[in-house]
Amino acid sequence: MKLGLDIGGTKTAAAIVHTDGRLAVLRTRASGHGPDAVVRVAASLALEAVAAAGTTTAGLSFIGACMPGLVDRESGLVSHAVNLGVERLDLAGRLGAALGQPVAVDNDVKTAALGAHHLLDQRNTDGTLAYLNIGTGLAAALVRNGEVLRGSDGSLGEIGHLPMGGDALCKCGQRGCLETLVSGSALERMWPPSGSGRPHGRNPFVAADAGDTSAAAAGAQLSAGLFLAVQMLVLTTGADRIVIGGGLTRLGGDLSTALAREIEQRARASDFVASLDLASRIELVPADLPVAALGAAMLQHGPLPTPQRPSGVPA
Ligand SMILES: [Zn+2]
After folding, report:
1. Separation of 153 CA from ligand 1 center, angstroms?
2. Tens digit of pLDDT for each residue in 172-204?
3. Residue 167 C-alpha to ligand 1 middle, in angstroms?
């Protein structure tokens, strides 16, 4: 069996997976804040899941872990995981020490893309899958021929920081980034919770139906931003599948319906948009499917060091 750990901004998940990919045990808990607590929560949750599966860490064939931020797969170091209070953390080293086994690490969105490819897209082994994560922020990752694409510096897929219009200040320093149109933080800004509101249980589409005009405006902005993200991914990557995951998918059917309406409207106005048949390419990750934790169990260890040419051998 294999272990996958997904250390998210709000919760951590540990999945024990059979070698054939079936989920054996899933445990979740609120994530720790700060490097020590992040590792402590992840390690104790992992041990709990391993025990529930009736094995030990020594009996596992693989351990993988993912978290937000810049993740160096080779060194195992994570930096700038702002929402977890982590500026720098030797994730692979410290989790490995706590679990007594080597741990492979990767960025959470790239890992979720890999999980989505394996879980939702097995027939499409030679196509391109784009995974769009709408959490506090917005980011995408691509899987082509079963491999996560990275680019030379890992920035491939950071479409949330493309300025698309508007003057909302983004945390990256630019204005009008796509992330300021469609993300959890965009929703909070456009439709701030009232004093008694539950900031994470709110649904702008339901509130709009009940006559809340600012919720309606926020919902419209969200749908338009999501449409832009999907169209951009299709046009720049040729993705035949767009899988949408992340915290905002808690809006579930309401979000799908709003996006479907947006696509229909735009396709009616443009034969070009209609020809892309966007609706047929989109799928929301089911709320109970832990794609990132399952993806973490499918990670491979980072690239091997480049072989050094023996001295004296001509290039
Ligand atoms: Zn930005």
Report:
1. 17
2. 899 999 999 999 999 999 999 875 555 545 899
3. 11
